[in-house]
Amino acid sequence: MNLGKKSTREEFERALARCKPEDFDGHTEFYRLTPEQRLEWLCQAATFVYEFKGKANSDARDRLRQRGEE
Question: Each residue of 58-68: pLDDT tens digit?
Answer without folding.
Answer: 666 666 677 77
